[in-house]
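cache lookup: miss for this entity combination. No prior model stored, computing from scratch. Input as submitted by user K.M.:
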Amino acid sequence: MIKIFKNLKPYWKNILGILTFTMIGVLCELFLPRLMGNIVDNGVVNGDVDYIINTGLRMIMFAILGTSSMIVSAYLSSKAATGFGRDLRRMVFTKVEGYSLNEMEKIGTSSLITRTTNDINQIQQVAIMSMRMMVRAPLMLIGGFVMAYSTNSTLSRILLISGPLLLIVIAVIGRVAFPYFKMIQEKIDKINKVMREELSGIRVIRAFNKVDFEKKRFEVANRDLTDTFLRVMKIMTLVMPLIMILLNFTNVAVIWFGSKLISINSMEVGQLMAFIQYVMQIMFSLIMVSVVFIMFPRASASAARINEVLDLDSEIIDGRDKLPENKEGDILELKEVTFNYFDSETPAVKDISFKVKKGETTAIIGGTGSGKSTILNLIMRFFDPTSGEILLNGKNIKDITQEELRKHFSLIPQKTVLFTGTIRDNIKMGKEDATDEEIIEALKIAQAYDFVFKNEEGLDYIISQGGKNLSGGQKQRLSIARAIVRKPDFYLFDDSFSALDFKTDRILREELKKVTKQSGVLIVAQRISTIMDAETIIVLDDGEIVGVGNHKELLKSCEIYREIAQSQIGEEALNNE
Amino acid sequence: MSEENKDIERKRRARRVNNNQRGQGQGARFAALEKPKDFSGSIKRLAGYLKPYRIRMIIVVLMAIGATIFTVLSPIIMGRITTSLYNSVRAGLPIDFVFIRNTIFMLIGIYLVAASFSYLQQFLMAGVSQKLGYDLRKQANEKIHKLPLKYFDSKTVGEILSRVTNDIDTIISTMQQSITQLITSALTFIGILVMMLIISPVLTLITFVTIPLSIIITRSIAKRSQVYFSKQANALGELNGHVEESYTGHVTVKAYGREKQFIDEFNEINERLYTHAWKAQFISGIIMPLMAFVNNIGYVFVAVVGGIFVLRGNITIGSIQAFMQYTRQFTQPIVQTAEIINVLQATVASAERVFELLDEEEEENEENKILKLKEPKGEVEFRNVSFGYSKEKPLIKNMNIHVKPGETVAIVGPTGAGKTTIVNLLMRFYEIDDGEILIDGVNTKDMKREDVRKLFGMVLQDTWLFNGTIKENIAYGKENATDDEIIHAAKLAQADHFIRTLPKGYDTELNEEASNISQGQKQLLTIARAILANPTILILDEATSSVDTRTEILIQKGMDMLMKGRTSFVIAHRLSTIRNADIILVMNNGQIIEQGSHDELMKLNGFYADLYNSQFAA
């Protein structure tokens, strides 16, 4: 919590200003009751009308001065707090953009999103509240006490009793209620969970005629939430009445003892009236302070989450060497590569060695969790291998920059990602200076030309967030076009044809062959039909290579390949071949 | 350059559209800007829900009135002490402690009564609103089980969920806080006004000058700040969109080396957010000091004029003290009422969304249908069936198929071809427009939906399991299933082995996303569930994406087991299933375009032949 507020440093001038101006504002505010008391004690008692009017004018001047300093302070604090939020956001975002997949997975994408948005907003909100109230309330508290003390020291002893009492009451209630609030949140989550399940499983529920069962499940959660709420409310509704009683009783005590003091001439009536107002101001600032304190636990949880992001450094460090040229065409080579995910003891891939040459297609087949995508991620250096090395033209990819490395590749990931913006923008991600002609050519190869130009906007068609206005197949074709426009040395396809219907899939692959002639292709797939005609097929099982060869060879030599083929194509078809 | 700007603007617009869509889903949080459609009508309907709690509501109102009266009275009583003190001091008489003591006892009494009144009132109101929330949630849940599938297919889960959760929460919290606050504020305002008038009409007039001033200030500031707040909300939405996109597309961004471009864009939005945010914060931050200023001006006027009045003997000093306390409290109820009215509008908008759900058209009541199949054989016939999701776009026209007991129907076609339509019609998730579907010669429309569904077992790719143990999930298909039956079903479904390797075996609790078991294992569980249910007719989806090869083989074994001797409708992906099927339905763009056996369809040399060759021929 404190650590994160160190980032307020650039705003120290603002904060100094906030302190100064709030101080002025508070002093002005505190002076008003004293002047009012003077009106009574000096003006009214003595019958001095001029004095009354003069004091009134002085009061207005104080009011103006106080208000203007509070406005200045509000200006300074809103700039400082929102600027602080802006800085944090920038720091976190820049940091995350530098993360490798390792760090991404360590924290989790959705958690990172929450940290960059909600958590920082939470901190910013606390910063605003602190600058407004946390500064003002203690000043008010001290000032009020000083004023009360200087008005009448004997009477101010009452405050020493009722002030702490108020804090105790708030603390006790807070302590009792806090776990309940957590409980309520859990019950709300529970009921939402049941509801969400019922909505997403509506077909299954009806298919199994389980409506009554589900109603009962919901009823239990609903009843539970309501009961917990009622229990909490019994306590929470006590807060305001209790505080009011405390405030009012303090006032009564002040009046009673004040009267005693007046009777022995050690106090005046106007002073008593002013004193009552100081008591109010003090008690209210105590309440304010406790309100801010309630916000702190939540905010410090946010702060811890943000700090975690800022403290986590990417393990992948750029090398400095240049990539050597290779006259016979680029070669990618994996040498005994083994990789463990950060939290796992068993390696995701083990002892992987193979080469990808220009003009050849290499395919990797295997089920989910067999480590296919991991290999692609290692080649792109989203992770570094635990042992072994990956060589590009004979150079370890750790020794060159990530930028240099990735220039040679087009990765078409399994989950298609397009970004908000025009189709042109999205294709241009592959090649910054691509001309419309190049883009159109890529779209044609990717079988995307027809649907893109069916819209009037053509390349200017705006893709909405997450590509919601396109079908899965259309998105996949655009992401392939984006890869083609790059004209890379190597294509890395990660199960990239799964959303296409059979016909498009076939045509696209035929067209692709024309452009990939000059490049090396590495395809990862689950469907045997996609990879049957590759020059080399690597069969992966549980992270290890269990077979290498072409389709025909593998059918004979590799048990697992045969099993997969059987289940996907069927016994008869295999025998027919 | 201008092109670039246009591009940015376009992007911005696209994101904003997204934000709006998201806003609808989030309901309450964005509701402050919405206007209810029929304010008084919806209020009346909401009030109708409070009818059972009428007596309590009356008590609540009475308590609120009582508490307010006492609160308003106390300053003037306290003022009497000051007056007595002042008079004694002025006249040089000894202070009347008896009077003061009596008055103080009276004050203590009043404070205690007022506090207990307001506690009771808040407590009762909390009870009423929580029970109202319970009722609304229950009704909404029951309603959901009565709505036709069409409703769920046309809305997202988030959209419906937000009505049942966020919107109802908004209603409850308004009920609990704002309603009594509204009563108290209004009464306090009136009470204070009366007291002030009694004390001094002239002073009241002076104070009144400050009221329009505070209204003008609050209004004009609120208007301005709303502009900045909505700009801030837009920028924030845009920023969130950008962050979400950048992080979920992290691999792509890195693969194409575009980190810098994304950071630049982020900084641009972030900077804009900052500009709007500090203005919004500043403007809303000066409301308090400005209101305090207006208040202080009133305070000064009262002090000066009141002082002069006391001098002239027009008024007692205690009254001035009371009057000053009143002016301090005076503006509060006005500000509060303005806030509450905003909250009320949002609440009524929420209530309308909830009512909209409750008013949705329900499925036809089938209480009077008593036809049941005693010994179902599994003969299925589509006779002249026509259907379309909307009247304008008929998908199936005059479809006729006859499936004998134990036969297999394979449904094939590219992704998104509408293969689930057949499932929807068989299970009566949707009603056909024309013709009839017969099971064992009985029109399914003559049976209750539940009785039709009892005949079917379903294993879909979308494996729905609920938050419970594995045992409970398998037993979902059959009430009162014994442990032996459950284990037997799991064994047949090839699931027994993996379940036993889990630390708690059959008692393993599936967590919310059921992420503690793999997708393939989930599918095995749904097969076990279907086996235990022992249906006459099966609906299967063979698609096994994101399942590892070994589990895939297990799943297929399980499915083969399940299909033995049952009429089956299979959304087919395996060549062997398709070739061995008795009837193949070929679908494209939602329509059945070819139908027949494998050999017949190959001879036809149409879509199916094309599809078959491209997918399976090497």
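stored under new cache key. Residues 97-144 of chain B form the longest helix (48 residues).
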